[in-house]
Structures are given as structure tokens and as C-alpha cells.
Design brief:
- By secondary structure, the chain is mainly β.
- The relative contact order is 0.32.
- The strands form two sheets. Strands 2, 4, 5, 6, 9, 10 and 11 form a seven-stranded mixed sheet that branches. It has a four-stranded antiparallel sheet with strand order 1-3-8-7, with no helix packed on it.
Length: 112
């Protein structure tokens, strides 16, 4: 059974940093694209960052230069390093594999 489990969320002040992790289990995902979405209250889910099996990355314009996605295929894990966080980054962050499998999400709150 495929499972994605996110961790690393929390409360951080504006300008701070967090590193999210998503551990996948059930099978190897080294050949699959993986990514992070976020959903804020009252808003649609949006793509934050994606990474292909070969390591090619893409980012939402709102996070370019601040967030970095990476993956460790040996650990079946994808990461999201978030720097210079802003209040508008507050959301539930969800991990996905090929937009077919989804984690339950981890809350990120940016507030002073």
C-alpha cells in the first residue's frame, strides 16, 4: 500500500525557514515525478514545486528564489526547503507522486 507522510511543518516568524519532508512507502518512486502543493483556507490547491525523476525542478512564481525542492531516491523522500517565509505562505502543504498519490499534509503557519 502506497503511503506518503509529510513532516516538518509548524509555526515560524516571517523571514524564517522550515524544511518539509515527505517519506514515501509501498514501492520505489525513483522513476516518478514528485511535488508539493499547498492549500490555504478558502483557496484552491496550488502547485508549489515539482521535481522530475531526473531532477528537473519547477516552481510557482510566488516561491521562486525562496523555496528549493529536492529528492533522495535512496530514502524514497522528497524535501521542500522554505526560506524567507511570508505570511501568505501559510497553508497546508501536501506531498504528491504524479498527482496520483497524496499525503495528508502538514500545516505551515507564518506569523509574528
Amino acid at each position: 500500500q502506497v503511503q506518503l507522510v509529510e513532516s516538518g511543518g509548524g509555526l515560524v516568524q516571517p523571514g524564517g525557514s522550515l524544511r518539509l519532508s515527505c517519506a514515501a512507502s509501498g514501492r520505489s518512486f525513483s522513476s516518478d515525478a514528485m511535488g508539493w502543493y499547498r492549500q490555504a483556507p478558502g483557496k484552491q490547491r496550488e502547485l508549489v514545486a515539482g521535481i522530475s525523476s531526473g531532477g528537473t525542478t519547477k516552481y510557482a512564481d510566488s516561491v521562486k528564489g525562496r523555496f528549493t525542492i529536492s529528492r533522495d531516491n535512496a530514502k524514497n523522500t522528497v524535501y521542500l526547503q522554505m526560506n524567507s517565509l511570508k505570511p501568505e505562505d501559510t497553508a497546508v502543504y501536501l506531498c504528491t507522486v504524479r498527482e496520483m498519490y497524496w499525503g495528508r499534509g502538514t500545516q505551515v503557519t507564518v506569523s509574528s
